[in-house]
# Entry
Amino acid sequence: MVRGGRFVLFLALSLCVYLVAMTFSETIGDGVENAARLAMAAAFLLVALFMRRRNAEGASWRVFYALFAAAAALYVSWRFSGVGNRVLSIPLNSAPGLAIAKLSSAVLTVAAIVLLVRAVGKPAASLYLRLGNLKLGLAVGLIGFAVLSGLALVQALGSGMNWQNLRALAPWVLVFILANGFLEEILFRGLFLGRLEPLIGRWPAYGHDARRHSRTRSGTTSTRRIT
# Structure
């Protein structure tokens, strides 16, 4: 029962971060969004510091700190991810512009998360930034990439795109999906899985990640925008 309550609590709190920062960001006024992002980050940090002071060896403060890190990193990305486009003079409303913006966002977000995690004495490996089983990972990744690329190609050709357009878009689509994939692995899984597991269990932590990810990404338009 206690684990179930924790599951619901942390899912609700994490959805607050991701729904404001990602799903509904374009529909919220900048002033309201700025205030909401800063308020959430400050609240999570204060709770994390309070709980750490009470029990530095406990697991709960680490989850609240992870929520703070996610909110803070997404805020930094929101504020500065357009720098790459401005420096390179590439408009956002184009395939190269969207790819550069996504790459900038990924670099800023992941860098901020790594720095914040290291600030409390945890290595980058705590975010699963380590080699692991490289052969298995590459095999699964390449097979998955091939299958999904084939499905995307069929969908694109079926929607009326020709080979010339596909060849022109391919490099930018590749940059976009690789940057986005790496970003989401750190933001959704690396930051939370290991911190949630002691509190709710391994499989509920996986379910927490899947539910949070599916709710956050519903209604996204990245594919339509880049093509």
